[in-house]
Recover the amino acids of this structure.
C-alpha cells in the first residue's frame, strides 16, 4: 500500500469519525434540551406553547450541532489537509508526508527517501487515537444524558409536545360562515295590472304591498341552507344577485315570513294592501221618484267613479219590473260598456229613453251604475252605486206610496194646534177684550173643537172597521177615543167661556194626536186601516200542543283587543330577559293587530325597533297595552254600594 | 215593558207591502198559542230609519228586486249585529227570479255567505216541533215559482244566534190571509211563525 | 403703682378667665342636660337613609326629630320605628302629608276587574296608577273616589300630593250562575244575551205559554251554592217568590225590574214598595253621553227606610237598593234597557253589557279564595302613626347640632385662653 493509499484510508476513517461525532453530539444536545425541559416541567408544568417548542427546538439544536461538527471537520475532504493533520501530530515528518502523497511533486522513484520517511508514520495509530478521543467524548455525553433522561422520564412531556405539534400541524378547519341573513334587501314588484313601479327596501322589517305583489328577498352568501316559511308554506332559496334569494307572493292576510340560515332566524312581516273596489256615486237621478203617469223622453244618468289604482270600464244596469199582485216579470238590461282607460277618477254619463222601455202603470225601474277596476289578482274589483228606484203609480191606488195626501189625523192635528194657539191668545188677551167679545170668541172655538171631535169620531169608525163587517178596537182608535172624550169636555168649557179650564185638556188632545201622527207614519197607504186581532177573544184558543225546547246558552264574547293586550303583556315580561325573543314575539302580535287594531300596529313597530337596538321599550309597550284595554271608569252612587257604572 | 209588535220592513226598491194580511195571521197564531204580550196590529217600519231599532223582529218580503240604499244597508248591519232578527222571504218562490238574486247579493255583500240551517236547529223546536225542518207551503207543493221544494232556510249567524233568515219558501203567500180564515183550515199553517217569534224573543 | 392701662388689661384678663370658666360651666351643664334629656339630631325624608345608618352606628343620639315630607319607604320607616328600642326616641311631623287610604275589591263579574275606593280630603286631586302608569285622575268628593278598573294588574296606587297609598288584590271570586226569570220578551232576551256575552253562565225560565216555557239549564235549588244572583224581569218571577226571598236572606243577590216589585211575593224585598207611572221613551236614539236618559222608566217610589238611591233621572228614582238579611236587592226602573243596546251609539253594545253586569255585580254573592298578594300600604299615614306614634312639633332649640356647638365652644375657649396668656406675657407677668 503506497503512502498515498494509506493517507486515503486515513481520510476515509476521518470522514467517518466526523460524521459519527456529529451524530453523537447532535443526539447529546437533543437529549440535553429534552432533559432541561423535563427538569423545568417537573418544577413548574410547561405551558402549551413551550411544550410545542420542545421538539422543534430539539431537532433544530441537534441539527445545528451536527452541522457545526461536520463544518469543522470539512477539511477531511482534502487529502492534503488530512496529510497535514497527520503531520501536525507527527512534526518530525517535516512535510514529507504531504509531499509524498503528491506523485507529481515527489514521484516514488525519484524521492525514495521521502517516501520511506513518510512510510514510517503510524497513521493507523493516530487515527485510532483521534477516533477514540472524538467519539469517546460524544459517547460519554450521550450516556450521561441518557441516564439523566432515564431519571427524568420525559415520555409524557414528549408525548404532549408531539400532540401539540400534531394539532398545530394539522390543517385548520374553515371558519364558520357568517350569518347570511344580516345584510338583507327586498325587491318588491307590484302586480302588473297596477302599473306601479318596483321598489327596493333595505333591511326590511316589514313589507307592505298590494296583494299579489312579488317580493324577492336576497342576501350575501350561497343559497344552500337558506330557506323561508310563511305559515305552513316552505320556500327554498335560489341563487340571487348578491348570493341567495327567496321569492314570496304577498298573501291576502297579514303574515310573518321567517327566514332561516342554520341556527339564525330573521322575521319579516308581510302586510298586504287591499286594492279597494271602485267607488261609484250616482249623481243623476238624484233620488227615487214615483211618476203619476208614464214618463216620456230621456232621463239623464250621471255617475262619478273613482278607484285607488285605475278604472277599467263601467256601465249602467237597469232592471225593469212589471206586473202586479203575485205576478211580476223583471228584465235586466246592461247598458253599453264605457272604457275608463285606467283613470283614477272618471264620469259616466248617458241617457235612458223612456219610450224604448215600454213602461206602464205599475212598472218599477231600478237603475244603478257598475264599475270595474283592473285587478286581475283578487278581483276584478266591482263597485256599485246606490240604486235609484223609479216607480210608475197605478191609477187604482188613489194614494201613492211616496206621495200620500194629508191624512185625516194630520189635518186634525193641524186644526187642533191652530185652535190651541187661538185659545192661548184669547186667554192672554182676556183683559184687553170686552166681555162679550171674549165670550163670542170662546164660543166660536167651542164649535171648532166640536168640529174636530166629529172628524175624530169618523176616523175611529174607519179604524175599527176591519173590512169584514166586524168592529174591533185598535190601539189607534183607543187613543183617539181618549182624545174625543177630552174634546167633549174642552168643548163644554169653551162653550161657557172658560178657556183657562179648557186649555190643559186641549194640550193633552194635541199630544195624543201628535203621538198618533207618529204611529201613522208606519202606515203609508193613505188612511189607517190596520187589521187588528181580537186578543181577548183569541188568547190561548189554539188546540195544537207545543214542546218548547231548551235554550242553548251563548258563549262569552272574546274581545280581540284584550287578547292582543294579553299577548303584549307576555312579550313585555320577556323583554327584560330576552329582548330579541320579545321582539320576534311582537312581530307576530303586530301582524295580528294589523287587522283587529291597526292603530296599535304602529306603536308596536316602535317597540320592536327599540328592542332590536337594545333599548328599553317599556314606555312604548305600556302605551299599546293601555290603548287596547277598556279604560277605568269613575263610579257614582253611595260609597257602600260600590257605585254604578255610568 | 215593550210589548211585541210585528213589524214589516219598508225599503226603497221593492213592493214591501205585498203581504198586508200576514201580520194579522201571525199575530193571531201567537195569541192562540202563547201568553206573549203582543200588539194586535202590525206596523210598517222604514229600513233606513232609526225607528227600525225599536222593533227587534222584522219581516221583509216582496216580488221586485232588492237594492238597499246605503242607509238601509248600514241599519241592517247594525240591526243584525246588535241582536235583531230579520226574516227575508221571497214572495216569488223563485230562485231564478230577481228578488232572490238581488236579495241574496245584498245579504252576502253585508254579511258574507249564509249558513244553511240544519233541520235539527233549535228554531224548529223552540216552540212547535218541526222534525223535517221548515214546513212546506202550498205554493211550493203546487209547483209555484221555481217548482222546487226548498228544504232548508239559510241564515246569518252572530255569535251562534240567528240574526237573519232567508227563505225561498214564500211564507208571505202562505200566511197572507185574514185570521178569520183559519176556522176553515184543518192545520194552522202559521204555527211556524210562532216559532220565529218565540226564537226572536228568547234567543 | 399700676397705670390705668395696666389695670384695664388686668381686668380684661380676668374677664377672659371668667368667660372661659363660664363656657366650661355651660358646656358641663349642657352635657349633663343632654345626658338627662339626650343628644338630639334631626333629618328630613331626603336625608333619612344616611342619618339612620349614622344613628345606628357612629352616633346614637338620645332623640331624633324627623320632618317627613313624603312617607318614607317601608324599610326606612321600620328602621325608624326600631330606634326607640335602641335608646333613641323619635319625634316626627309631616305637615304636608295628606290622609289617604285605598281599598280594592275584586268585582263579581266574569270579566274580572276590580272596584277601587279611595279616601282623601274633599277636593284633593287623586291620581290612580298601576304598574303601567297613570290610569286616571279626578278630584275627591266628600265620599272620596270610587272607580272600576276593568283590567286590574294586581296593584293600584292612589297618589294624593306626596302620599301614595297602594292596595293589592288579596282574593279572587268564585262565581256561581245567574237565574233569569221573566216573560219572553225583549228585555229578558237582551238581558240574558248581555250577561252571557259578558261571560256569566245563565239559567233561565222564560214564560211563553201554558203549553211550554223556554228554559235554559236545569234550574236547581235557588241557593247561594248554585246561584250568585237572581234577575226577576217581571211579575212572572212571583212563582218563585218564597224561594227567592229565602235565597236573598241567605246572602244571594236579587235584581228586580220595577214591574216585578208589584207582586206580593216580591214586594217585601223591593227597595221601593210603589211603582210610578211609566215614563215612555220618545223613540230617540239613546246618546252615548247619557244613554239611559232616552229609555222608558218606571220610577221606583215609596222607598223603604233602609233603601239607598243609587241613581236618579231628574226627580225620579231609577235605581235603588237595600239589604235584606245577608243579601242585597237592587231595583231598576229601566224596563226597556234593551233599546240602549239596539238603538244606541257605536259603544252601546259593550256599554249596555257592562252596565248590566255592573247591576249584577252590585248584589251578587260569590265565593272567595285568597291569592298571593303583592306588597301594599293601603294607608301610609296611618301606618306611620301606628309605627312611630303621633306627630309632634319640633322645637328649634333641639335642632342644634352638638358637634357644631362643641366646635364653637372649643374655639372660643382656646381664643380666650390664648388672649389671656398673651396679654399676661406681654405685660411681663408670668
Amino acid at each position: 500500500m503506497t503512502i498515498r493509499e494509506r493517507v486515503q484510508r486515513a481520510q476515509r476513517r476521518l470522514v467517518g469519525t466526523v460524521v459519527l461525532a456529529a451524530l453523537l453530539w447532535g443526539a447529546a444536545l437533543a437529549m440535553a434540551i429534552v432533559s432541561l425541559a423535563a427538569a423545568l416541567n417537573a418544577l413548574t408544568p410547561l405551558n402549551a406553547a413551550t411544550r410545542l417548542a420542545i421538539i422543534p427546538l430539539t431537532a433544530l439544536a441537534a441539527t445545528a450541532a451536527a452541522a457545526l461538527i461536520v463544518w469543522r471537520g470539512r477539511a477531511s475532504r482534502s487529502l492534503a489537509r488530512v496529510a497535514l493533520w497527520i503531520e501536525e501530530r507527527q512534526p518530525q515528518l517535516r512535510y514529507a508526508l504531504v509531499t509524498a502523497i503528491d506523485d507529481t511533486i515527489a514521484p516514488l522513484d525519484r524521492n525514495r527517501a521521502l517516501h520511506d520517511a513518510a512510510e514510517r508514520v503510524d497513521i493507523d495509530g493516530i487515527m485510532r487515537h483521534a477516533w477514540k478521543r472524538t467519539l469517546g467524548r460524544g459517547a460519554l455525553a450521550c450516556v450521561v444524558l441518557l441516564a439523566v433522561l432515564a431519571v427524568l422520564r420525559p415520555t409524557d412531556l414528549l408525548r404532549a409536545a408531539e400532540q401539540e405539534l400534531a394539532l398545530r400541524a394539522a390543517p385548520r378547519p374553515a371558519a364558520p360562515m357568517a350569518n347570511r341573513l344580516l345584510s338583507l334587501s327586498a325587491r318588491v314588484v307590484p302586480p302588473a295590472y297596477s302599473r306601479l313601479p318596483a321598489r327596493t327596501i333595505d333591511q326590511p322589517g316589514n313589507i307592505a304591498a298590494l296583494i299579489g305583489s312579488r317580493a324577492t328577498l336576497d342576501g350575501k352568501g350561497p343559497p344552500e341552507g337558506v330557506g323561508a316559511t310563511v305559515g305552513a308554506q316552505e320556500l327554498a332559496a335560489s341563487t340571487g344577485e348578491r348570493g341567495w334569494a327567496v321569492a314570496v307572493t304577498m298573501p291576502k292576510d297579514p303574515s310573518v315570513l321567517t327566514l332561516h340560515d342554520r341556527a339564525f332566524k330573521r322575521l319579516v312581516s308581510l302586510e298586504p294592501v287591499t286594492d279597494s273596489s271602485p267607488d261609484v256615486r250616482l249623481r243623476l237621478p238624484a233620488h227615487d221618484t214615483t211618476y203619476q203617469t208614464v214618463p216620456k223622453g230621456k232621463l239623464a244618468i250621471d255617475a262619478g267613479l273613482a278607484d285607488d289604482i285605475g278604472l277599467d270600464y263601467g256601465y249602467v244596469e237597469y232592471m225593469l219590473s212589471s206586473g202586479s199582485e203575485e205576478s211580476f216579470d223583471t228584465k235586466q238590461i246592461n247598458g253599453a260598456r264605457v272604457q275608463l282607460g285606467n283613470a283614477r277618477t272618471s264620469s259616466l254619463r248617458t241617457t235612458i229613453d223612456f219610450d224604448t222601455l215600454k213602461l206602464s202603470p205599475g212598472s218599477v225601474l231600478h237603475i244603478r251604475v257598475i264599475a270595474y277596476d283592473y285587478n286581475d289578482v283578487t278581483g276584478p274589483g266591482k263597485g256599485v252605486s246606490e240604486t235609484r228606484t223609479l216607480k210608475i203609480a197605478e191609477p187604482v191606488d188613489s194614494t201613492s206610496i211616496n206621495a200620500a195626501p194629508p191624512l185625516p189625523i194630520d189635518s186634525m192635528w193641524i186644526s187642533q194646534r191652530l185652535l190651541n194657539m187661538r185659545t192661548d191668545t184669547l186667554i192672554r188677551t182676556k183683559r184687553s177684550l170686552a166681555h162679550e167679545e171674549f165670550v163670542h170668541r170662546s164660543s166660536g172655538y167651542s164649535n171648532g173643537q166640536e168640529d174636530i171631535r166629529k172628524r175624530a169620531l169618523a176616523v175611529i169608525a174607519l179604524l175599527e172597521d176591519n173590512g169584514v163587517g166586524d168592529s174591533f178596537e185598535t190601539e189607534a182608535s183607543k187613543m183617539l177615543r181618549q182624545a174625543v172624550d177630552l174634546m167633549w169636555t174642552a168643548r163644554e168649557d169653551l162653550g161657557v167661556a172658560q178657556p183657562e179650564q179648557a186649555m190643559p185638556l186641549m194640550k193633552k188632545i194635541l199630544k195624543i194626536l201628535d203621538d198618533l201622527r207618529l204611529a201613522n207614519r208606519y202606515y203609508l197607504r193613505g188612511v189607517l186601516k190596520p187589521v187588528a186581532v181580537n186578543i181577548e177573544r183569541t188568547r190561548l184558543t189554539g188546540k195544537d200542543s207545543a214542546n218548547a225546547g231548551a235554550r242553548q246558552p251563548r258563549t262569552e264574547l272574546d274581545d280581540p283587543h284584550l287578547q292582543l293586550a294579553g299577548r303584549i303583556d307576555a312579550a313585555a315580561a320577556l323583554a327584560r330577559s330576552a329582548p330579541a325573543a320579545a321582539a320576534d314575539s311582537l312581530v307576530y302580535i303586530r301582524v295580528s293587530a294589523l287587522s283587529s287594531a291597526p292603530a296599535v300596529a304602529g306603536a308596536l313597530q316602535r317597540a320592536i325597533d327599540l328592542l332590536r337596538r337594545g333599548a328599553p321599550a317599556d314606555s312604548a309597550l305600556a302605551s299599546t297595552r293601555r290603548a287596547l284595554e277598556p279604560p277605568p271608569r269613575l263610579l257614582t252612587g253611595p260609597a257602600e254600594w260600590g257605585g254604578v257604572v255610568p | 215593558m215593550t210589548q211585541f209588535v210585528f213589524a214589516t220592513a219598508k225599503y226603497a226598491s221593492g213592493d214591501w207591502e205585498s203581504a198586508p194580511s200576514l201580520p194579522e195571521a201571525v199575530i193571531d197564531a201567537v195569541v192562540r198559542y202563547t201568553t206573549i204580550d203582543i200588539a194586535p196590529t202590525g206596523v210598517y217600519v222604514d229600513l233606513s230609519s232609526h225607528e227600525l231599532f225599536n222593533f227587534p223582529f222584522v219581516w221583509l218580503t216582496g216580488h221586485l228586486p232588492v237594492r238597499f240604499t246605503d242607509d238601509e244597508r248600514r241599519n241592517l248591519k247594525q240591526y243584525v249585529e246588535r241582536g235583531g232578527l230579520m226574516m227575508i222571504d221571497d214572495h216569488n218562490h223563485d230562485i231564478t227570479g230577481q228578488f232572490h238574486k238581488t236579495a241574496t247579493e245584498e245579504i252576502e255583500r253585508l254579511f258574507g255567505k249564509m249558513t244553511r240551517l240544519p233541520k235539527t236547529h233549535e228554531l224548529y223546536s223552540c216552540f212547535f216541533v218541526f222534525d223535517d225542518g221548515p214546513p212546506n207551503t202550498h205554493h211550493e207543493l203546487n209547483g209555484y215559482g221555481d217548482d222546487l221544494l226548498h228544504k232548508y232556510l239559510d241564515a246569518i249567524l252572530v255569535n251562534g244566534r240567528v240574526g237573519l233568515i232567508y227563505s225561498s219558501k214564500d211564507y208571505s203567500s202562505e200566511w197572507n190571509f185574514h185570521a178569520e180564515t183559519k176556522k176553515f183550515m184543518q192545520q194552522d199553517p202559521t204555527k211556524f211563525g210562532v216559532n220565529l217569534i218565540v226564537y226572536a224573543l228568547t234567543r | 403703682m399700676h397705670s390705668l392701662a395696666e389695670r384695664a388689661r388686668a381686668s380684661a384678663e380676668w374677664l377672659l378667665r371668667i368667660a372661659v370658666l363660664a363656657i366650661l360651666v355651660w358646656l358641663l351643664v349642657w352635657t349633663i342636660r343632654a345626658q338627662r334629656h339626650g343628644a338630639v339630631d334631626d333629618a328630613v325624608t331626603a336625608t333619612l337613609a344616611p342619618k339612620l345608618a349614622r344613628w345606628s352606628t357612629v352616633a346614637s343620639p338620645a332623640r331624633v326629630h324627623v320632618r317627613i315630607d313624603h312617607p318614607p319607604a317601608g324599610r326606612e320607616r321600620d328602621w325608624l320605628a326600631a330606634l326607640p328600642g335602641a335608646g333613641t326616641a323619635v319625634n316626627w311631623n309631616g305637615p304636608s302629608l295628606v290622609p289617604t287610604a285605598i281599598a280594592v275589591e275584586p268585582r263579581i263579574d266574569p270579566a274580572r276587574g276590580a272596584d277601587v275606593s279611595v279616601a282623601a280630603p274633599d277636593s284633593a286631586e287623586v291620581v290612580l296608577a298601576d304598574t303601567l302608569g297613570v290610569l286616571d285622575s279626578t278630584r275627591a268628593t266628600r265620599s272620596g273616589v270610587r272607580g272600576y278598573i276593568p283590567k286590574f294588574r294586581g296593584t293600584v296606587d292612589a297618589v294624593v300630593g306626596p302620599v301614595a297609598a297602594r292596595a293589592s288584590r288579596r282574593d279572587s271570586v268564585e262565581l256561581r250562575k245567574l237565574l233569569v226569570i221573566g216573560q219572553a220578551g225583549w228585555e229578558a232576551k237582551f238581558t240574558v244575551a248581555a250577561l252571557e256575552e259578558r261571560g256569566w253562565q245563565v239559567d233561565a225560565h222564560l214564560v211563553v205559554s201554558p203549553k211550554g216555557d223556554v228554559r235554559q239549564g236545569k234550574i236547581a235549588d235557588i241557593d247561594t251554592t248554585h246561584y250568585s244572583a237572581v234577575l226577576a224581569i217581571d211579575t212572572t218571577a212571583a212563582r218563585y217568590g218564597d224561594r227567592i226571598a229565602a235565597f236573598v236572606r241567605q246572602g244571594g243577590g236579587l235584581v228586580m225590574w220595577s214591574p216585578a216589585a208589584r207582586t206580593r211575593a216580591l214586594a217585601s224585598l223591593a227597595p221601593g214598595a210603589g211603582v210610578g207611572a211609566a215614563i215612555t221613551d220618545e223613540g230617540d236614539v239613546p246618546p252615548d253621553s247619557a244613554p239611559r236618559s232616552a229609555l222608558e222608566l218606571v220610577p221606583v217610589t215609596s222607598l223603604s227606610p233602609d233603601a239607598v238611591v243609587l241613581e236618579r233621572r231628574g226627580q225620579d228614582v231609577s235605581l235603588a237598593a237595600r239589604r235584606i238579611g245577608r243579601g242585597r236587592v237592587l231595583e231598576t226602573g229601566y224596563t226597556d234597557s234593551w233599546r240602549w243596546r239596539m238603538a244606541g251609539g257605536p259603544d252601546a253594545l259593550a256599554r249596555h253589557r257592562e252596565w248590566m253586569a255592573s247591576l249584577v255585580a252590585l248584589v251578587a254573592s260569590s265565593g272567595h279564595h285568597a291569592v298571593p298578594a303583592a306588597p301594599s300600604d293601603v294607608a301610609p299615614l296611618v301606618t306611620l302613626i301606628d309605627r312611630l306614634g303621633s306627630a309632634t312639633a319640633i322645637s328649634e332649640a333641639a335642632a342644634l347640632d352638638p358637634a357644631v356647638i362643641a366646635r364653637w365652644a372649643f374655639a372660643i375657649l382656646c381664643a380666650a385662653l390664648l388672649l389671656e396668656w398673651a396679654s399676661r406675657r406681654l405685660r411681663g407677668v408670668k
